[in-house]
Amino acid sequence: MTNNNPIGVFDSGIGGTSIWKEIHELLPNEKTIYLADSKNAPYGQRTKEEIVALSKKNVEFLLEKNCKLIVVACNTATTNAIRELRNDYDIPFIGIEPAIKPAANNSKTQVIGILATKGTLNSELFNKTAEMFQHTTIIEQVGHGLVQLIEDGNLYSPEMTQLLESYLQPMIDANIDYLVLGCSHYPYLIPQIKKILPEHIKIIDSGEAVARQTQNILREKVGFTDAVQNDPEFFVNSNPAVLQSILENKYPVIEKDF
Length: 258
Known about the structure:
Blueprint: E1 7-11, H1 17-26, E2 32-36, H2 48-64, E3 69-72, H3 75-88, E4 93-94, H4 100-106, E5 111-116, H5 118-121, H6 124-131, E6 137-142, H7 146-151, H8 158-173, E7 178-182, H9 190-196, E8 202-204, H10 207-222, E9 233-236, H11 240-246, E10 253-255
Parallel strand pairs: 1-2, 1-3, 2-9, 3-4, 5-6, 5-7, 7-8, 9-10
Helix pairs in contact: 1-10, 2-3
């Protein structure tokens, strides 16, 4: 089964590029279109209704580009809107959820930490997942301010270091041995997080798992491209310089109001 249409990927901003990179690495021949709704970031502080409406707006943009499947590269959008998206659109959706299961199943201390947005931690989907692991203590921490600092290009600012230390120290004190990153922006913070956490604490994000699931859906339902190579496209509706920087200026970024 061959399908040369692109894979669509959207996030509330630039963070979903951490997911896009995993997909692009695993499936380099596939055409990808990335949509950064930076004008409306962060989604984590918004109501469920707002998140659903913004997610649908992003989907409509990607459908106009003839995408064959859409990756919701945003934990908050997945946990609040993916059910509505799957009900309303006849296209496969792949979501991203905090990787609680591998952390809980492998934890020796039976204490794990989750760093995520308010929208993710308050969602019904997240809480249903967390309830499945009654034997594990889950230390939840809302990453207030982290996404906005990343979106503003202040990845290595003193304020970022101060926030991370204040969020992670209580988890260290609680004896976590796994830290789950519950926001697609947060993998860009891993170098700084590693400086704060003791070496024995493992960090888990969802990027590789999402890329593998994308590959599975292409194989089972949608079809792979037969092109040798396709250049990715990147669209953003605010502050294109930050997206350009996170992509290390390897690809052009198109600023477009949507």
